[in-house]
Design brief:
CATH topology of the largest domain: Rossmann fold
Number of domains: 2
Number of strands: 17
CATH class of the largest domain: Alpha Beta
Bound molecules: adenosine-5'-diphosphate, magnesium ion
Strand order of the largest sheet: 6-7-8-3-9-10
Shape: elongated
CATH architecture of the largest domain: 3-Layer(aba) Sandwich
CATH superfamily of the largest domain: P-loop containing nucleotide triphosphate hydrolases
Number of helices: 8
Radius of gyration: 24 Å
Largest sheet: 6 strands, mixed
Length: about 350
């Protein structure tokens, strides 16, 4: 089965005088797994609903493959959708839920049955067809929702926070499962989450959204290590954003705005070229795999995240102690001038 590219072109959506989507453009390649990542209210669901056909954009257009779908009815867009709240029919069996999209498409009963069984097998629910939805766990229900979304072999999949109701371990397991399902089927997928780690784990590319705009579209590695804006830097992890002259070693011009991740720091100097920051401990916390040290340097607060395996001495640190941490110089990311405002 061939998958299709998606083209989102200058989409605008206004509610009253609130701009939910402000001129959003995005090209998704055929077979790509792209994640819309952003805080609550940034417009992720609105964009997904516009693609699905449940929200009519005020301006702009949407293409799936060669087809302009901007004004096409939802059921004619050939899109599989999975929501956070499953949207399963509670009074139907698992199998009837999965067969439902095929019944809508007037597929013969025997064939629908066979295809629904195959979809259930894909999501590792062989033998669950006769169960009631009410008798399933949250993770199993989400698998049924996945099976229902893929059963009619859509060429595009949209998923809106499908894992956010699950607990952490199951969520992390399902991240791999969904990515594997995508890789097996090759369906172009747009996935929505507000969880940056989930986006990093699953995606070919991430589009970071804030206040109805896309801030950056890039691979997980680029987004994390070379954020284009302070918003992206801070949303993606523990970022220290400082003027270049804040460092006690390896300083840059004060006019440079630089970013360095908390986990780049160590309590001993690295082998190659290094930068260093010196300050006084304000607070510390043990987090299992690391120690988080909050340090005051001049007027600023910086964060050091020291891996627990190399944190000898952290236990004994008391507030007020002077502390110096080093990082490899190439971990320093200098913002482009226009982005540092
Ligand atoms: P996200 O999915 O990123 O959390 P949404 O796309 O749901 O964000 O919402 C973006 C903004 O648009 C929010 O401020 C939300 O309150 C507003 N919004 C969404 N749908 C409607 C609606 N039907 N009427 C009014 N405002 C809406
Ligand atoms: Mg949402």
């Amino acid at each position: 089965m061939t998958s299709l590219p998606i083209s989102i072109n200058r989409i605008r959506k206004v509610y009253g005088n609130y701009i939910a989507l402000d001129d959003v453009s995005l090209e998704i390649r055929a077979g790509e797994f792209l994640t819309l990542l952003g805080p609550s209210g940034s417009g992720k669901t609105t964009l997904l609903m516009a693609l699905a056909g449940f929200t009519r954009p005020d301006d702009g257009n949407l293409r799936i493959g060669e087809r302009d779908v901007t004004r096409l009815a939802p059921n004619r867009r050939d899109i599989g959708i999975v929501f956070q709240n499953y949207a399963l029919f509670p009074h139907m069996s698992v199998l009837a839920n999965v067969e439902y999209p095929l019944r809508l498409r007037k597929i013969r009963k025997a064939e629908a049955h066979e295809r629904a069984q195959a979809a259930l097998s894909r999501v590792k629910l062989d033998g669950y067809g006769d169960r009631d939805i009410a008798a399933l766990s949250g993770g199993q229900r989400q698998r049924v929702a996945l099976a229902r979304a893929i059963v009619f072999e859509p060429r595009v999949m949209l998923m809106d926070e499908p894992l956010s109701a699950l607990d952490k371990n199951l969520r992390e397991h399902m991240q791999f499962e969904i990515r594997k399902l995508h890789d097996d089927l090759g369906i172009t997928t747009i996935y929505v989450t507000h969880d940056q780690r989930e986006a990093l784990t699953m995606s070919d590319r991430i589009a970071v959204m804030n206040a109805g705009r896309i801030q950056q579209i890039d691979t997980p590695d680029e987004i994390y290590h070379r954020p284009r804006t302070q918003f992206v830097a801070e949303f993606m992890g523990e970022a220290n954003i400082l003027p270049g002259d804040a460092f006690s070693e390896g300083a840059r011009p004060a006019s440079d705005m630089v970013m360095i991740r908390a986990e780049s720091f160590h309590l001993e100097p690295p082998a190659g070229e290094a930068i260093a920051l010196t300050g006084r401990l304000a607070a510390k916390a043990f987090r299992g795999e690391n120690w988080l040290l909050q340090v005051t340097t001049g007027e600023r607060q910086v964060l050091f995240s020291i891996p627990a395996t190399r944190a000898a001495g952290c236990e004994a640190l008391t507030p007020g102690s002077e502390i110096t941490a080093w990082a490899a110089r190439d971990h320093l990311h200098v913002f482009a001038r226009e982005a540092a405002t």
